[in-house]
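Hey, can you fold this one?
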Amino acid sequence: MNDFKKVLVLGPHTDDGEFGCGGTMAKFIEEGRDVYYATFSCAEESVPEGLPKDILLKEVKASSKVLGIRKDHLLIYRYPVRKFAHYRQEILEDLVQLNRDIQPDLVLMTSANDLHQDHFTIATEGLRAFKFTSVLAYEMPWNNINFETRAFVYLEEHHLHTKLESVKCYRSQTGRKYANEEFIKGLAKTRGVQCGRDFAETFEVVRWIIK
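Sure. Predicted structure:
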């Protein structure tokens, strides 16, 4: 893992990266790695009634700041939510350009076993764009029909705390069951038990390249 100096996290929507691997992002930033976060939709169509349509844009900026992501490392695209399949080629071209611009050593993205149509598109096109790069898929149990817990990243309690604080920035999502603090803590503890630590996040190994 010490060879991974540049890490790119792909979030289909704002908040996916934080929920899936926020603790890992916080840990990697603490270790001095360059962490980039690309999110492909601000999901204006899904914003709860009564809230401003750009609220998720504001929330992802606040959340990224909590995690320690540099402003110029937060990359925001504006594809319509639940319609990524219609823009598959455009998304692939954006991903290929990200690969050229950033040349990441490691990519973290959603799983191909994710039932959400946008998540599946990012997983599929992400692998196409980064087929010569090590790729891990982060866990989203509320969407994963299957998930192989093959790789683990140890987390200290303060990494988990940073993840929780970043998730709290998404006030528009507080009604989601997976945004519950006890659920997030419990999942991190469960994954920690699996690998002999107090806390962890788990990933599917999609592509692993040893240089």
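The chain has a mean pLDDT of 96. Let me know if you want another pass with a different chain boundary.
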